[in-house]
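A.,

Following up on our hallway conversation. Structure tokens first:
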């Protein structure tokens, strides 16, 4: 199977449900979840920030994917993780929007490009 199918499945089966869980439960999540959000957010900012620069230098049309992760998703996770139970409601709602966007986008990719993956 193509590596893209694993990436799509990762987002459909793990990332989106995790974001939905945090977005719905809000401050009721265990404290360790906030720590995980900080770690994940830092990884996203640095890894995708690096990948963004590399892709821009290569003239890739997919640099936008890395920009979204490094400039939107990563900082959102860092903010929620660092604020912990004190995080304001709108940030959880943006996390839910992000979860549903990721779920829809990756399900679309799986459906439209299914022949590409097999």
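Then the amino acids I'd put at each of the 118 positions:
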């Amino acid at each position: 199977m193509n590596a893209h199918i694993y990436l799509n499945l990762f987002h459909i089966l793990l990332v989106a449900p995790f974001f939905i869980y945090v977005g719905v439960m809000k401050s009721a999540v265990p404290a360790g979840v906030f720590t995980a959000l900080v770690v994940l957010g830092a990884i996203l900012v640095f890894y995708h920030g690096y990948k963004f620069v590399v892709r821009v230098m290569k003239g890739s049309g997919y640099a936008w994917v890395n920009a979204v992760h490094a400039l939107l998703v990563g900082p959102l996770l860092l903010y929620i993780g660092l604020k912990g139970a004190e995080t304001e409601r709108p940030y959880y709602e943006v996390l839910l929007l992000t979860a549903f966007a990721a779920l829809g986008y990756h399900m679309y990719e799986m459906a439209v490009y299914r022949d590409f993956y097999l």
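The mean pLDDT is 95. Curious whether your intuition agrees with the design.

B.
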